[in-house]
Amino acid sequence: MARLELLHNIPAPYRVHLFNCLARSLAARGDSLHVHFFGANNPDRPTSWKRSLEDARFSYQVWDGYPLRIRGATLWFNPRLLWNLARRRPDILLHGGVWDSVTSLLATLLTRPRQRFAWMEFNVDIPGRSGGITGRAKRAMLARFDHILVPGAKGLRYLERYMGDDLRARAVLLPNVVDEARFRAGIPEEEVLRARRVLGADEIPTDHLLLIWPARLIGHKGILEFLRHVDPAALDRLAIRIIGEGPMKQEVLGEIERRGLGAHIRLVDGYVDYAIMPAVYRAGDAMLLPSLHDPNPLSVIEALHSGLPLLLSNRIGNFEEAMDQGGNGFGFDPTSGPGVREALRRFRDLAIDERQAMGARSAAIAKAAWDSQACVDRAVAQLLRGESSANADRAGIEIETFEISGFPHQRPSGVSGPSVSKHSASKRPIGRFGAPAR
């Protein structure tokens, strides 16, 4: 019986769900999970997240530590946890982020587990400092890991392009997941009406479409850039609600006023509890996310499970898995004003039955690609069998057509599934995240 110990910053509600799935998957194999949380919460996260552990069905400990704030990020340092890990030899140590905390970084150097896995939200469109001395240091650090978990195709291509073939060969896919039951379930009408009141949607004219935009008010979410790409004419018969808090709030409000967009775009006042987000999505007509870069946003997966059409930046990490262009929404380059406006126009001009078909398509994609327990079970099977998701053609990633629930879709053929190891690469067509093509 092996014990997998996971290092993670805080018990966010969506991560607790993932860890519950991981605990079930390990228990089915006779193994166990223990999660080391660096702290109860980050200074910039909602206090309600502290209640998330009420839903935990796994062993865990919340450690004392120091939340170091550096350039707006919280980097945890937990000396007592490091001492605990260094004085013994864990069976399996899974690092939730390697250089996202002082604790995880030092644990890479100071501990001696029998197996060591990294869990990284890499995105080839966000290379960061991947060249020169920094790139060499990152490669040397990742070389200490037996496997590297990434959430999708852009993560695989990041490893291939910036980290090299050896590290690419250690990749295992673990898609970001949310508790789909909460978003797929029927939402009582009174809860949807309450969500509309929270959004200020009662004031929206009946012929307008409501776009839900969940985003922290920070630079890489592309909020100011989007506002500068649109004008009242581009937003005709559209209402946008931005849901989030952050340091750019006054700047965003000022830009909305300066461009005369207040009749169409508003910030939702105050923090919106994660518990009512299923009703918030159900109150909308589509989800909007024009991020300049975003590793692998969970809000996209929540919207898919909620059956919403998507208006997505093509720079987000799960764009290729989530977007069927023209099938469940429209993708666009967030730096292109004409591209942004064209996506908005195309969605606005859809007939109601076309929007409903897009929503159904989103739900079908979510069901096939982001079934939480199935995703986790496949990743665990690969990790503990010593396999990888590394049968991509190194010369390039082609596009193959396959189907999800009867719908044709496109995806990178380089994303292999758990039945393919680095020692027995197969060229057979595959479905999303390793399911055989139908």
Overview of the molecule:
With 438 residues, the chain is α/β, with parallel strands linked by helices. It has a domain at 182-369: Rossmann fold (3-Layer(aba) Sandwich), CATH 3.40.50. 35% of the residues lie in helices and 19% in strands. The protein has helices spanning 13-28, 79-86, 102-110, 132-142, 153-163, 165-168, 180-184, 189-199, 223-229, 249-258, 277-283, 298-305, 319-322, 337-348, 352-369, 372-385, and strands spanning 3-8, 32-37, 59-62, 66-70, 73-77, 92-96, 115-119, 147-150, 171-173, 209-214, 238-243, 265-267, 286-289, 310-313, 329-332, 399-404, 407-412. The strands form four sheets. Strands 3-2-1-6-7-8-9 form a seven-stranded parallel sheet. A six-stranded parallel sheet has the order 12-11-10-13-14-15, sandwiched between helices. The longest helix is centred in the C-terminal third of the chain and has 18 residues, at 352-369. The model is unreliable at 391-438 (pLDDT under 50).
